[in-house]
UniProtKB/TrEMBL annotation:
Protein name per its UniProtKB record: Inositol monophosphatase
UniProt-listed InterPro entries: Inositol_monophosphatase-like
Record keyword Ribonucleoprotein present: no
GO molecular function: metal ion binding
Chain positions recorded as Mg(2+) binding sites: 68, 84, 86
Keywords per UniProt: Magnesium, Metal-binding
Keyword Transferase set for record: no
Essential cofactor(s): Mg(2+)
SUPFAM superfamilies per the UniProt record, alphabetical: Carbohydrate phosphatase
Pfam families: Inositol_P
Length: 106
């Protein structure tokens, strides 16, 4: 049986590496569009956000997720992942890359 924290680390590191590799390939081709709230988003933001949420849901179906491109309602779960996969829109437009993933326990 794998240690819980090893599972967390493996999911986070594997996902960050896999998503990051694809985003690096796409870097420099950023075209932003405007969301309903007036902020900007790219298809890379949306793809990365969905990929990360899918991997979390597959590995930890009992965990909640709050993400930049999905609902912003705090789930009623013991664990909640907070993700902003790349902030590709702002940083991609300015040629820098930052990511944020966090997992919190209630």
């Amino acid at each position: 049986m794998t240690n819980f924290w090893d599972q967390i680390f493996n999911l986070a590191s594997t996902t960050a590496n896999d998503v990051g590799q694809q985003l690096i390939l796409d870097f420099g081709t950023v075209q932003a569009s405007e969301k309903a709230d007036g902020s900007l988003v790219t298809r890379f933001d949306q793809w990365a956000d969905q990929e990360i949420r899918t991997r979390i849901a597959t590995t930890f179906p009992e965990h909640g997720v709050i993400s930049e491109e999905a609902e912003h309602i705090f789930p009623h779960t013991d664990w909640c992942w907070v993700i902003d996969p790349l902030n590709q829109t702002f940083h991609g437009l300015w040629n820098s890359i930052l990511s944020y993933i966090s997992c919190q326990s209630s």
